[in-house]
Amino acid sequence: MKIRIPALLAAWLAAWAAFADTVPEDQRVPLDFRRTTLVVADIERSLEFYRDALGMAVIYDNLIVTPPEASREDADLVRRLVFLRANDDYIGVLGLLQYFKPVRETVDLTGSAFKQGTAVMLFNVEDLPAVFDRASTVEGVVIIDEPTPMSFPSYDGEASIEVMVSTLQDPDGFTVEVNELLSEIR
Length: 186
What we know:
This protein is α/β, with parallel strands linked by helices. Helix content is 18%, strand content 36%. The strands form two sheets. The chain has a four-stranded mixed beta sheet with strand order 1-4-3-2, covered by helices on one side. Strands 5-8-7-6 form a four-stranded mixed beta sheet, sandwiched between helices. A hairpin with a 6-residue loop joins strand 6 and strand 7 (160-169). Helix 2 (43-53) runs antiparallel to helix 3 (128-136).
């Protein structure tokens, strides 16, 4: 049986997320990983993917002009920044950033999924078939792996972790796994 890297990564990350509890005070480290920000070509299309298809909630949406007192037309730098959350307003926030002035060069990420130097974002959802259908119809999305059931050894070695695994590239080419846990993780 051939097990693909995305499926192994998905199982590990899904298992890790299932154990996600607040770390006891005596085990905390002096930092939090708050946000990943994606520089995107079309923020509305990105919102269609992350907000409308995946179900993230917008918690911040502003046009940022530099210098602050300049009009949009006279500004040196104009960009829109949107923050989205899943179930926490502080940890795991996704930022979307689009530059309007000056327009930034686009990096072609086509075919870059799971290559050294690229990142993978993993989202666990409750209804993968519905979410995958919505996400895969957003303009510019590339389907890498359609939802596929996978089974992985559990942490205790006495059971299996059942996960429905899917992989896409978002409209800007960022690799996204959208998965659903089908069994409890032990």
